[in-house]
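Each letter names a residue; structure tokens follow underneath. Both lines appear below:
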Amino acid sequence: MGTTKAKKAEVADRRAQAITLRIAGMDWQSIADRLGYNSRGAACQDVTRALEANLKEQSQAVDVLRDVETLRLDRLQAAAWPAAVRGDLKSIETVLKVIDRRVKLLGLDMPVRTELTGAGGGPLALSTADPDQLAAIIAATGRLEADRPPNTATSTPVEDDDEDEDGGA
């Protein structure tokens, strides 16, 4: 015989309370005592299971959304493809943009490898670097990355500093 809806709701409520208490900084034994778990390990395991289930559900939702977006890109490419293969430059540009978007969405780009070396191509001695040397290394890295197109597999978006100049707070 399966678990009743009332029991499932009770378990979900207790898990939600346990997560809230843990986020608030309460230790596992106190959570177990307050919510009626048999032990602190049982409270920890229950919260861990709940969080893992939530992550799994979120991951599945992201996968579904990625699939939907891929299908949309496929339809857009299919619509522009006949004109593109006939040589229509605007359609070719559109198809290339769709392909680029699909590559980004699916993470198909190869990661860009950046390597900093010390004098004579040897290893960079960071353990002996003073703050000025470290600042120079960081600045050099920023310039290297600015010269290359962003790689979605390893890059993170950079916020635009111009927003403050345009009247932003």
Summary: Residues 40-85 form the longest helix (46 residues). The two ends are 60 Å apart (CA to CA). The mean pLDDT is 81.
